[in-house]
Structure prediction request, 441 residues.
Amino acid sequence: MKFVLNGASTDVMAHPMSRLLDVLREECGLTGTKEGCGEGECGACTVLVNGEPVCSCLIPVAQVESADVVTIEGLGDDHPLQHLFMNEIGAQCGICTPGMIMAAIALGPSPTLDDVKIALAGNLCRCTGYSAIYRAVLKWREMSDVNVSASATR
Amino acid sequence: MARNVGRQCVRERDAVRTAISGLEVRRAASLGEALSILRDDQRTPIAGATDLYVALNFGTLEPRRFLDIWAVNELRDISMNGKTLVLGALATYTSLIRSPLVERHLPMLVEASRQVGGPQIQNRGTLGGNVANASPAGDSLPVLAAVDAVVVLRSADTERRIPLTKFYTGYRATVMRPNELIVAIEIPPVEGRQWFRKVGTRAAQAISKIVVAGVRAAVPRIAFGSVAPTVVRVPETERSLASGATIDEAARVLSREIVPIDDIRSTAEYRMRVATNLLRRFWIETG
Prediction:
């Protein structure tokens, strides 16, 4: 079964009803995507399918045929949002972090704090109390909005 | 002793996962294909999988044979047919939230959709799935019941239109036949102010303890979720309000009309108190 994974076309052998989460972790070796609750409550397994955040524990892999899938590994190791999560102490135990980042990455430009809270409402964190995470995401959007307007005026 | 503990662990692990290898799925690319597969073969439709895969992950999934309809794009449309708003069965909560037509004609469905799970669930969960799943706590169902929505069922050779209020026959039971698919939900024109409230443990990611939708018109229309085995309209309460009863009298009528239960999410007593409070809020805020 073929789909695009982190920008590269991928062909996996998997049962069509396998969970996307298991295919990513076990067939593709991408263990950055975490399993938390297995019921769509915690968001730890969040990945992007065609640009939208979804819970990979609730998706039969057959349904991503030909789709564009992006996991935390797709951001590389040097994404500004990853650095901000570290700098703002938005990660403690770390289990929610990949899912938080994948849910945040889908945010539109110039979000308010409420927009960030809504975008991350499907992701649970039991360590940080969320404030540091919201701060990291808001700083990242401010940075990237500045970069966008700087390149627009160039 | 250690061996017993070990064995128990294995048993528990077995219990939380359905063996994928025991499942079988066919995928339909069009509605015609989906209906002809269902004509010949009994299968459980699967779309956004936000309920079915929770059952799969918990090992409580009973069906073994599935029909995947996620790719049937013709069921995603949101459109007007004359004055009727037609919501395709595969319209996701996200697409309902973003639809100018839904915002204009049925804003309380936008409100309800925003309160389903979080964005990840809203991106995948479908309106048809919420109806088919037949949970008494389904967030969209009081909205659909309050506006007298019609469920459009199609099989390979027939089409039936069933009012949502007649669609459920009991707890998790519907009038659907095995060869039928929900293809759309039709919303007749709604006159009057719309009102929706969901009470859960927290704002996002919570299954409702109680959910209510109302339309304030000469004869108000009010529906509750999580207070009975199915979503329910409360016709006696509606009639008492229409006939000029005070809100206190109507609240007493309501308390005789619904029979909430104790369960893991709440108690009957709490639900009864909150239901009557919500009736008051509806009446005050739409007055």
About this structure: The first helix of chain B runs from residue 2 to 16. Residues 1-16 of chain B have pLDDT under 50 and may be disordered.
